[in-house]
Amino acid sequence: MVHEKAITGNTSLYCIIGMPAHHSLSPTIHNAMYKKLGMDAVFLAFDVAPEDLKSAVYGMKAYGIKGMTLTSPHKQEVMKYMDHIDPLAKELGAVNGIVIKNGKFYGYNTDEPGSIMSLERHGMNTKAGYALFGAGGAARAIAFGLAHKGVKSLYIINRTLEHAEGLKSDLQKRFPKMNIETAKLGSKKAEIAIKNSKYILNATNITLENSKDTPVPAGLLNKDMVVFDANYVPLKNKLLSDAKKKGCITINGLELLVYNQAVAFKLFTGREPDIKTMMDAAEKAAN
Which of 35, 36, 66, 75 is flagged as catalytic? Predict the structure, then answer.
């Protein structure tokens, strides 16, 4: 049973869709908040194949679903079904949150604010150097978030240099004064970038594919760094383990997930989320 409170015909329904989505911790996080606030609501997860996305989105209106979050592979494709897209989501080219207002679909992005909130929790310094690993959707959200916060110096490090250059180009069109450099993962320039950065941000799937692999050699880490990994499966990996041994501040993907969902919760309900309640629920489920 999701709640102690009975689910009735008046219970508000919220959900996440993806392929897959059934493994998501989002239901656990949101349902913990509903229970905390005594809300008559439930959050569920639905596996939705790409060919069924249109039906799922329009079904949201038909079934009275009040809020929907989206995960891979739907964040770009869903944009074509929106009546209105928030400027931030449009800039990032991705929608991962939908609400219906006056019968119209409104698309939002919570990835950028969620990533920045998780960094700010640990005392974000916009004057420091940042080394961002990755050039995909997660990296794009983080990079634009850093730029919006006024970060002046950013290295983008990626296995495919062309993708890093593409992200750099998109950023510089919007933020021409930002100092952005790119490097290929494992190169000498990447090593220099790491040494010149206080913030090491992993948005690749390297630690997701293999918890014993890392994009950052342990010898390049030092105690003054903040090391962030966008992945929360597995919770423990070599990158974060190496960083802790060096005395770095570490931020795991669970924090990013919780802050993403906190933004979505407020977007859907208009109520302030309690981060501790959400974090406690996520950590209990993840462990």
Answer: 75
Q: How many domains does the chain have?
A: 2
The CATH number of whichever domain residue 148 belongs to comes to: 3.40.50.720
186-234 tens-digit pLDDT: 999 999 999 999 999 999 999 887 778 999 999 999 999 999 999 988 8
191 and 117 part of one domain: yes
Q: Does the residue 2 lie in any domain?
A: no
Residue 4 lies in a domain: no
75 in active site: yes
pLDDT at 4: 61
In a domain, 3, yes or no: no
| Together in a domain, 183 and 90 | no
**Is the same domain home to 123 and 242?**
yes
Is the distance from CB of 257 to CB of 96 less than 8 angstroms?
no
Which range of residues forms the domain containing residue 46?
Answer: 12-109+260-286
